[in-house]
Design a protein that fits this description.
0% strand; protein transport; mainly alpha; 163 residues
Length: 163
């Protein structure tokens, strides 16, 4: 880059003063300053855009690597499940043969299923709601009682001044 020392800047300023004149020199200097500022901003924008595109390319590369790793893990897990299932199938078949010989209710031959009349117990949602602490409900705005819109307006309406 060009090296401007104090003596060179003074020489350029003296020549500009003589050529342009003292009346127009401040206006020209201001214009040159604005143009240099715009040029610096433009260069900074270009640098930022290049950096953003480089980061985007890196992120896309990382995403592809993570996707391939996830696919490999999924394929490995599926293969292990298939191998395990193939290893356990003869045992299940032997178990099915022995269970069918045992006296079972009509239409119920699978030892792993529940009998036809059995039902899962219902979950008590009231007990679950009561298990949440009161301070947590207040902090997160969980309403204990539902109000209509008119009741809410009446509740939060400022009191009327007495006459």
């Amino acid at each position: 880059m060009i090296d401007f020392g104090f003596d060179k800047l003074a020489l350029i300023g003296a020549v500009a003063l003589i050529v342009i004149g003292p009346e127009k020199l401040p206006k020209v200097a201001r214009t040159v300053g604005h143009l240099l500022g715009k040029a610096q901003r433009y260069v900074a924008d270009v640098k930022a855009e290049v950096n953003r595109s480089m980061e985007l390319e890196e992120l896309q590369k990382m995403r592809r690597e993570v996707e391939t790793a996830a696919r490999n893990v999924e394929q490995t897990v599926q293969q292990e499940l298939r191998d395990t299932q193939n290893a356990l199938d003869p045992g299940w078949q032997a178990l099915d043969g022995s269970v069918q010989s045992v006296d079972t209710p009509a239409g119920y031959n699978d030892p792993l299923r529940e009998p036809p009349g059995a039902r899962a117990p219902r979950k008590n949602w009231r007990a679950k709601r009561a298990a949440v602490p009161q301070w947590y409900r207040h902090r997160h705005g969980v309403r204990g009682h539902v109000q209509s819109g008119a009741a809410r307006v009446a509740r939060f309406r400022p009191p009327r001044p007495s006459r």
